[in-house]
Structure formats: structure tokens, C-alpha cells
Amino acid sequence: MVQKADKIWFDGQLVPWDEAQVHVLTHTLHYGVGVFEGIRCYTCTDGGSAVFRLEEHVERLFLSAKINEMVIPFTQDQISQAIIETLKANKLAEGYIRPLCFIGAGIMGVYPGENPIQTIIATWPWGAYLGDEALEKGIRVKTSTFARHHVNVMMTKAKTCGNYVNSVLAKREAIADGYDEALMLDTDGYVSEATGENIFIIRGGVIKTPSLGSILGGITRESLIILAEDLGYTVVEDRFTRDELYSADEAFFSGTAAEVTPIREVDRRTIGAGRRGPVTKALQDAYFKVLRGENPKYGKWLARYTI
Ligand code: PPE
């Protein structure tokens, strides 16, 4: 169960958690055209807190809305401020932030007409996405029988609610088959991403991640590319096949929720030494240092607040 907070921000007001309700004829509930974000905030070593890359997440929310022809009746600044306001109201020093814009009730049918665009911001504490041990020991992954969206079937650059039907199907299959996560291939058969994470592989010290084709342009992915280059690694953004993943020295998933999660096995094949590798560890350490406010060079990525 999600741990209840005091308030949810709902169309400009902080309302009690239990009162943040919608009508059953909410358009998005029927047809899936809504957009959302997943953002994390962390306690910093100096005792304050920080939201990681708040502006970039809010910008992506607005781009997702634009792609879906939804006009959010707030500015990006208003949403960023509302996120901080909600964190403070809920006294959340560290956790997860879920803004969601959806099409409200009005007319039914796939044409949403002038139905209102509504916005909520919820926050809750959320530990390690793939389990506490995953960050250190790595996870077991299975190639999904479900392909990731074709770029002309769903708009893959938008974080659209309906896109996640594909993720839920793949995740359920992976868990039922005894794995931790599903690896999804694109409709050409190349490695795409996971149900809620981007993927990286490392071979011979070179880091590789799929180019921005069928994948969501992850903010963690972008941050890790910058941090890896800072550490002197070469990062290649290109298509690769699943046998290249099988042959990798190391592999990991990245995402706001998943952070940097090592992959130790794919389709019964051990990846590298079958545990978190040295490059993955170096990137994890660099990432967490930034999140905790320990790397002044990337202080610009942190929206600081105190509860
Ligand atoms: N791909 C997908 C499909 C995806 O959902 C995410 C985030 C990413 C890549 C990584 O993007 P970014 O967080 O910007 O680095 N998935 C969010 C939702 C997870 C969920 O279960 O809900 C997240 O990590 O917050």
C-alpha cells in the first residue's frame, strides 16, 4: 500500500488525501490519455532536502501534454512551486512525487472535446523500486514476449498513462515467470527499455545505451551520460541487439524510481561476473553523490527545500 500523506494538490488546492477523488466518467479512466511524471526528492548530507531535476521533469510533463494535445491550465513555474508546496505540506524530506494531468468528465467517446484538463500532485515515501538488495546485488531479467511500442502507434517520448498498459502486461509476465523485470525489444527486435527504466550495457570499458528511438528519454539516463563522460568514460547512444546484452561485461537499468539498478542475469545468462560491476558501481556512487548534494558541480540539478 502507498503510505498515505496528509494532502494531495488538486487543481490549485491542497486537499486532504481521502478527498482527492474523481468521477467514474473521468475521460482518462476510459481512454488512457493522461500524462504523468515520476520525480524523487532526497535528504542531503547537509540536512536539507532536494528535488532532483525538478525543472526538467516539469518540462517533460508539459511536452508530454503537448504531444497529447492537452493544455495544462497552469504554468511550468506554478507546477514546480506546487510540488515544493505539497512536499512541505506533507513534511516529506525524502520520497517520490507523482504529478498527473488527466482529462476530466464531460462528454464520453474518444473525442474528448472541451472536457477539463485536471492536475494532481501526490507524494509518498518510496524505497528501492526493485527491492533493497537490488541496488547492490543486481536483478534477474527476462526478455518480454511483448514488444515496446512502435513509434507510430504510441508517442513514445510522452509519458502517457496509456503507454503503460504495455508495461503492466510485460511486468506481470516477468514476475509470474520468476524474474524481477522485463526487457523489452522494439518492433525491429532491438533492445529498447524496461517497463519503467532505460538500459545501459558496458563492454571493454565503453558504455552503450539505446538511442532515442522507441524509448522514453529518461532524465536519469541523460544525467548518467553526463556523469559518465565526466568520469572519462566513452558513452555510445546506438541500437544494439539482445545478444550484445548477453555478451556485456556489465548492464544496468536507470530511472527515477529504479535509480541505478545492476542487472546480473538476462534470459538465464549471467551478465559479466553476475554481480554489480565496477563501472556500474562508479556511476551509482557518482549519481548518489549528486542526489545527496555532495557534488557542487551539479548543485544546479537540485531544487533545495526544507520541511
Ligand atoms: N522508461 C520508461 C518506460 C519509464 O517509465 C521511465 C520512468 C524511464 C524510462 C526512466 O525515465 P526517468 O525517470 O526520467 O529517468 N519510470 C517512472 C515510473 C515508474 C513506475 O512504476 O511508476 C519512474 O521511474 O518514476
Detailed description of the structure:
This protein is of the alpha+beta class and 307 residues long. 45% of the residues are buried. Helix content is 26%, strand content 27%. It is built from eight helices and 17 strands. The protein starts with 6 loop residues before the first strand and ends with a strand. The mean pLDDT is 97. Strands 8, 9, 10, 11, 12, 13, 14, 15 and 16 form a nine-stranded mixed β-sheet that branches. Ligand PPE binds at residues 38, 193, 196-198, 216, 218-221, 254-258. Residues 38, 193, 196-198, 216, 218-221, 254-258 line the site of ligand PPE.
Structural class: alpha+beta
What pattern of helices and strands is seen along the backbone?
EEHEEEHHEEHEHEEEEHEHEEEHE
Q: How does the overall form come out from the CA principal axes?
A: globular
Low-confidence stretches: none
Radius of gyration: 19 Å
Largest sheet: 9 strands, mixed
What's the helix count? Answer: 8
Number of strands: 17
Distance between the termini: 24 Å
Sheet-strand content, in percent, reads 25-35%
Could you report the average pLDDT, rounded to the nearest whole number? 97
- Hetero compounds: ligand PPE
